[in-house]
Specification:
Blueprint: H1 7-10, H2 28-31, H3 56-61, E1 65-74, H4 87-95, H5 101-105, H6 118-129, E2 134-145, E3 148-157, E4 161-162, E5 165-170, E6 173-182, E7 191-198, E8 203-211, E9 220-228, E10 231-240, E11 249-266, E12 269-292, E13 295-312, E14 326-339, E15 342-345, E16 355-358, E17 362-370, E18 380-392, E19 397-410, E20 413-428, E21 433-445, E22 453-455, E23 469-471, E24 473-489, E25 493-507, E26 520-530, E27 539-547, E28 558-564
Parallel strand pairs: 1-3
Antiparallel strand pairs: 2-3, 4-6, 5-6, 6-7, 7-8, 8-9, 9-10, 10-11, 11-12, 12-13, 13-14, 14-17, 15-16, 17-18, 18-19, 19-20, 20-21, 21-24, 22-23, 24-25, 25-26, 26-27, 27-28
């Protein structure tokens, strides 16, 4: 988790919220520029309709085509605003390589001459906003003439270089690290990292490289190589995903060679440890007819090799149970159904930032068969499935539902079956106040020994040590009152706060685990610091949590500091 940074900490701030809007530049000024000439005037905030330009519905009905596509890729700070024209901010802009215009253009789902379609424009906005090196992105119709509509694509860069020291604390445990990382290497959109980290599980030193748009295409390439205190990690993938609703094909290949010690936990302590050598590979391809009547159907097929060889850990002298080795080689087929339905919001999971919530109904299922006759450790039907939907979004409330189920069937019995379900509810009480609650549950059947279901400070029960309870099922209920201030500290930080209550418990008796302590509850409060000028994590949490139950060894106050992707 990224909390302490050098220059990045001084350059992590939210853009003005709707309560503090800056001026928007004159759209007509962009019209006279060539399509490949970047626009430098400030264009912050959600776009409105440009005077003189028909509405999206009217443009589509008229059969308008796209004319010029103007790329307005803005730097971290708006130096044309006197409040941002400060020596430190000027230095940050000078040191930061701005995202190349071609990186933005390659992610657009339209080009000059295409038929105007607002749905593909909205989807392009979501694709750009999903990039960690952008604070936000908007696409606006800026002029209309001769049945052609010119578009301006506005993106706002964030600081992406992390040359610093990282610290986080949750569940009574610290994690530290030193790394040199740029998630937008020289403005190319690629991620390059050299790191050394110390966590509760291991010490790791390695390198990582990720490029989501290799050679200006939709091909994603990633590689990680690390030497760890308990082994090593070698992981490589190359794929062309279903990057948009109208993507007609996808393909990819993946491989991993990973040696590490796995630990089983209970009461916040290690109760078992063993070595796990994991080797795997996957090759897949997929096809789709694209979006039709608001729905997308995708078919994929592939072949997976997944092997785990277990043994004793040389550094462990306690009681040892070692999982059975397993190897599965199997072909599979997958079906995905996706409804096109999204909404935009502010001040829900982020502070002063555009948030894209999926409200449609989606369903995914994959089924494969591993036969012992072709090298699998046993014959098994392997499956995984998931579904989600959203309710509301147009008014004050929003509800998001999620479910997944995976496992394998051998000789008519379910093994390593895991079912998860969750409900998240948001109610916007006013401009600054939001009520949030969530209920989640997990149920396991004949779990593999190395697959634990735990509950503690690292999984949402904030008043307790990490991995505190171990069982074959769990449930967690959270209530949180969120407050989004208008405080813009040094024009660098957006600040919020939260008061929360958590309640959770585990069920079932896992191997070597103590009996469940029943219902555990806690309450607390904390600060939320918007990290919107930096792409190195979105919201810093600083919390105090007070446990109400548990055994006598638990500290009566838990102090947590961590960077999360949401409030």
């Amino acid at each position: 988790m990224l909390v302490l940074l050098a220059l990045p900490v001084l350059a992590c701030a939210g853009e003005p919220s709707p309560a503090d809007p800056p001026a928007t530049s004159d759209a007509d000024a962009a019209d006279s520029r060539a399509a490949d000439t970047p626009v430098h005037s400030p264009t912050f905030g959600p776009p409105g309709q440009t005077p003189g330009v028909p509405s999206p519905e009217e443009l589509e009905a008229a059969g308008a085509v796209i004319g010029k596509v103007l790329i307005d890729n803005q730097n971290i700070f708006n130096l044309e605003d006197p409040k941002d024209d400060y020596w430190l901010f000027r230095a940050a802009d000078d040191l930061h390589p701005k995202t190349h215009a071609d990186v933005i253009r390659h992610q657009l789902l339209f080009k000059p001459g295409d038929r105007y379609n607002r749905r593909s424009i909205d989807e392009s906005e979501r694709i750009l906003r999903a990039d960690s090196y952008f604070y936000d992105a908007w696409i606006r119709e800026v002029s209309y003439h001769d049945n052609q509509v010119d578009l301006r694509v506005t993106t706002k860069d964030v600081w992406t270089l992390n040359p610093g020291f990282n610290f986080s604390r949750s569940g009574g445990t610290n994690s530290v690290g030193v790394q040199l990382e740029d998630t937008n290497f020289l403005g190319s959109g690629g991620d390059a990292k050299v790191f050394h980290s110390v966590t509760i599980d291991r010490t790791s030193t390695g390198v990582q490289a990720i490029d989501q748009h290799t050679f200006g295409t939709w091909i994603s390439a990633a590689a990680t190589f690390a030497n760890n205190s308990d082994g090593y990690l070698r992981e490589v993938s190359v794929q062309r995903p279903f990057y948009a609703l109208n993507t007609h094909w996808a393909a990819g290949v993946y491989g991993i060679d990973d040696l590490q010690n796995d630990s089983l936990w209970d009461r916040g302590q290690i109760i078992n440890k063993f070595q796990d050598l994991h080797r795997g590979a996957q090759l897949y391809g997929g096809w789709s007819s694209g979006e039709q009547n608001g729905w997308v159907r995708r078919w994929s097929t592939g072949f997976t090799y997944d092997e785990h060889d277990f043994g004793p850990a040389s550094t462990w002298s306690g009681v040892t149970l070692i999982p059975e080795d397993r190897r599965f080689l199997y072909p599979w087929v997958q079906l995905d159904l996706i409804q096109d339905d999204y909404t935009r919001m502010w001040n829900h999971d982020q502070i002063a930032r555009t948030e894209d919530f999926y409200l449609g109904t989606s369903f995914s299922t994959r089924v494969g068969f591993a036969a012992s006759g072709i090298g699998s450790s046993s014959s098994a039907l392997l499956f995984q499935s998931s579904a989600s939907t959203g309710l509301g979004g147009e008014g004050r409330s929003l509800t998001l539902l999620f479910w997944d189920f995976s496992g394998r069937v051998t000789d008519g019995a379910l093994y390593n079956g895991v079912m998860d379900a969750s409900v998240r509810y948001y109610n916007k009480e006013s401009k600054n106040w939001l009520f949030f609650t969530a209920l989640s549950g997990t149920k396991g059947w004949r779990l593999d020994l190395d697959n634990q279901i735990t509950l503690g400070g690292d999984s949402g029960l904030r008043g307790y040590p990490l991995r505190y309870q171990d069982g074959t099922g769990r449930a967690l209920f959270t209530i949180e009152q969120r407050y989004f201030t208008d405080w813009y500290v040094f024009r660098l930080f957006r600040v919020g706060g939260a008061v929360f209550f958590d309640a959770g418990r585990t069920w079932g008796r896992a191997p070597l685990a103590s009996p469940s302590l029943g219902l555990l509850t806690d309450a607390g409060f904390g600060l939320r610091i918007g990290n919107a000028r930096s792409g190195l994590g979105n919201v810093i949490h600083v919390d105090l949590a007070f446990p109400f139950n548990g055994d006598p060894t638990i500290k009566r106050v838990q102090f947590l500091v961590q960077t999360e992707h949401s409030f």
